[in-house]
Design a protein that fits this description.
- By secondary structure, the protein is of the alpha+beta class.
- Helices cover 34% and strands 19% of the residues.
- A hairpin with a 5-residue loop joins strand 1 and strand 2.
- Helix 3 runs parallel beside helix 7.
């Protein structure tokens, strides 16, 4: 505050206040994420904005999954003016806007259970090493008739542009809403399964992309609801169809603004620098430890088996789409396009934690100077079992959530990247989820065994 007692605003905060007034915004929603990646929100009226920027908005953190115990429940949410956007699917009269928030303790210190600040720490660590982090995301989802079952809307397949692609209008409205919120889209298309779709977000800095993924999932659901259908990001909703993935594209830019992953003198011919190779080696070395973050539910591990399963083989390649890490080869000699694509994450992951875990593993690989093994181009791993892969000397991701929890719990790197609070919470919560799942007797078991055993 200045000497008169009024609050001093920075230019971004001043812009928000002026926009709220000029656009007739009547409610401003404060958005943040719980540990599992569920969007949380509360609304305030414009008159509270100046105070919120200066002093934060208080709320009960004990009500948020993974935040605080009841006796340590008081939290402050500080809205970030740089994330202000008017919500295009709400009425433009008495409009509604949103801002993401950073969560702090009453003392004003960053709250260790805030996933957004976990990613902020990893971005800062990358900056200390001389890198800016670029991230893109290809996110898949299903449209179903309602939330009570898996009745599909069409029988289309990959890239169909016919009457079979019943949801073209839904994708169009979703893309338009995203672009109105400043989130550029590269592609949108029908995916391989009936009623399955993909929208690819253009790369941005890591934090902007995590915010965009959170926004994307909400926009997809809101537009679907307006059309009277249900959108699902469940990793594997139908046993007989492929599951939903969230392929994550990563690259690093150095202090000169150059792509630190690109080197056209690469003796392997992939145009990858030693930095990129060590980054990939770090992810492959730590993939089993971080899998609980990128694939955090019981259902996530069913995506790695059965029809159209995602690759769980801890190898890399350019042309082999059954590898967990790929080097997209659309423009193989372009410095701008050089990046890696990590294929195992699913869209039910918390993007702040998933990006932080992948970045932490990659940076650890760079710092340790890990040497990358040669690519696996000639082995088609699509239909190979874990035992067959092991016979080829190829490790795999954990096969179950229970196995993933054990790997994660023992990981000093994940404890360091995520912090004790989030690491400990995830171990406890996911062990409870796995224990609850193991107690369920499924219809499959009854059909197979009840009459004969």
């Amino acid at each position: 505050m200045d000497e008169s007692g009024s609050t001093r605003l920075n230019p971004e905060q001043d812009f928000v206040l002026k926009t709220v007034e000029s656009r007739g915004v009547h409610f401003v929603r404060c958005w943040f994420s719980d540990v599992l990646g569920n969007m949380k929100s509360f609304a305030m009226v414009p008159g509270e904005l100046e105070g919120a920027f200066a002093r934060g908005m208080g709320f009960d953190g004990s009500c948020i999954e993974g935040f605080s115990r009841t006796q340590e429940s008081d939290m402050l949410a500080f809205p970030l003016a740089s994330t202000f956007q008017v919500l295009p699917w709400r009425p433009q009269t008495d409009a509604v806007a949103r801002m993401f928030c950073r969560i702090c303790t009453p003392a004003g210190t960053p709250f260790e259970g805030d996933p957004r600040q976990v990613l902020a720490r990893m971005v800062e660590r990358a900056a200390d090493l001389g890198f800016m982090v670029n991230v893109g995301a290809d996110i898949e989802f299903f449209y179903f008739k309602d939330a009570q079952g898996t009745e599909v809307l069409d029988r289309g397949s990959y890239f169909d542009l016919t009457s079979l692609d019943y949801a073209s209008d839904l994708r169009r409205d979703t893309v338009l809403a995203l672009e109105k919120m400043g989130i550029p889209v590269e592609y949108s298309h029908h995916e391989v399964a009936p009623s399955q779709h993909e929208i690819d977000l253009r790369y941005a800095d890591a934090m902007s992309m995590a915010d965009a993924v959170m926004t994307y999932k909400l926009v997809v659901r809101e537009i679907a609801l307006k059309h009277g259908v249900h959108a699902s990001f469940m990793p594997k909703p139908m046993a007989e169809q492929p599951g939903n993935g969230m392929h994550v594209h990563l690259s690093l830019t150095n202090s000169e603004g150059e792509n630190a992953f690109f080197d056209d003198s690469d003796p392997w011919g992939y145009c990858l620098s030693d930095t990129a190779k060590s980054f990939i080696a770090g992810i492959l070395a730590r993939a089993r430890e971080l899998c609980l973050v990128t694939n955090q539910y019981v259902n996530s591990y069913k995506r790695f088996c059965g029809v159209g399963h995602a690759s769980s083989a801890l190898v890399w390649a350019r042309n082999n789409r059954s590898a967990m890490v790929r080097i997209p080869g659309y423009r193989p000699t372009s410095a701008e396009a050089c990046r890696i694509e990590v294929c195992n994450p699913d869209p039910a992951a918390n993007p702040y934690l998933a990006f932080a875990a992948l970045l932490g593993a990659g940076l650890a690989g760079i710092e340790a100077g890990l040497v990358l093994s040669e690519p696996t181009e000639q082995i088609d791993m699509t239909d190979m079992s874990a035992q067959q892969l092991d016979a080829q000397g190829i490790r795999c991701l954990p096969e179950t959530l229970g196995e993933a929890v054990d790997e994660f719990a023992a990981s000093d790197l994940m404890r360091s990247v995520l912090g004790e609070h989030i690491h400990g919470y995830l171990v406890e919560a996911k062990r409870a989820e796995w224990a609850a799942y193991q107690q369920i007797v499924t219809p499959w078991e009854l059909d197979r065994f009840l009459a004969v055993l």
